[in-house]
Amino acid sequence: MDPDAARVAMLHQDPHPAHRGFAEVIGADLVDYHRLDVGPLEGTILEDTLNGLVYPDYDVYLVEGSRPLYAALTRRFARDGKLVYLCADHGFYRLGNADFEGDSELKSMIGRFGAPVVRSIGRHGIDGVIAVSEFAAAFTRPIVGPDTPIEVAHPFIQPDTYDALGDVTPDLESNVAVTVARPWEYKGVDMLVKAWPRVRETIPDAELHVVGSGHPEAYAQTPGVRVQGYVEALADAFKPASLFVQPSRMDTFPVSTLEAMRAGLVPLVTQTTGTRSEASAIDPSLVVDPNADALARGVSAYFELDVDDRQELATHARKRGARFDPESRTTAFHEAFRAVLKAL
């Protein structure tokens, strides 16, 4: 397919700011995947089916995450147009990990039709994939098959945030860790809070600051844990800390890790997080298993380092974080998208 001639729409529910930037750089129209009012059918598979049938005609439908897949696949099989899946959530991860509790439309599809049928649909209905991390590409490959083109394009930090975080000087002498997340189970904040008493067995003054709205106030009953809630400026949350923790049970490529690195914080992430590629490039010890024991060991090991060692890691972290500016990442996405279309 000629990428210069293709008419492209991005099907979305509520586009991530970085994904909106991706759509702009490829000249895609934003199309709400539930644009049709179906009255009593709202919330059913028929709503997705009917919406898919009435989408405007495009050559390519870029599908943001697993939620619009019902509608997009209906369009793909019943009408025309190529389907390129932007793998940016945990929908496909669920197919290969039965115990993972995520929240996605794909999980609903698995419940209705079973994993083998969904794999078959994915293999025949998805023409190409752009994954936001190597991790996401790896768990998507078995679903779409060996011949479907897959490219990797990482998201970026929003411009104002990128600039502000570049001026942050974290307190590398402190034994303060910070995590920034929504209160969703897959983010794993509960595991990190559970780990904290074990951290304080070796680092008695260790503090954990939990940033983000909606977290249980009960977390603050754990010694050393502060629930800060929503903050207006991430810089204020990062300045008192020397370590950022991404404790996710699964995460394709959380921008919060990139933001922390941009601010000069050392990231500790789980093996099931796409930003493990960034943390491991700084030091392999910064990637741990997704459980409370491993998180406790990882945090304690970092806090036991002297300031010079922390500074060396933080310098590497800031350099890697600087790579996730909007201009370079949207350019990389544009190149990845063109590569996928050329392969179709």
UniProtKB/TrEMBL annotation:
Molecular function per GO: transferase activity
SUPFAM superfamilies, alphabetized: UDP-Glycosyltransferase/glycogen phosphorylase (SSF53756)
Domain of life, per lineage: Archaea
Pfam families documented for this protein: Glyco_trans_1_4 (PF13692)
Transmembrane segments: none
Annotated keywords: Transferase
PANTHER family: D-RHAMNOSYLTRANSFERASE WBPZ, GLYCOSYLTRANSFERASE
Annotated protein name in UniProt: Glycosyltransferase involved in cell wall biosynthesis
Native species: Natrinema hispanicum
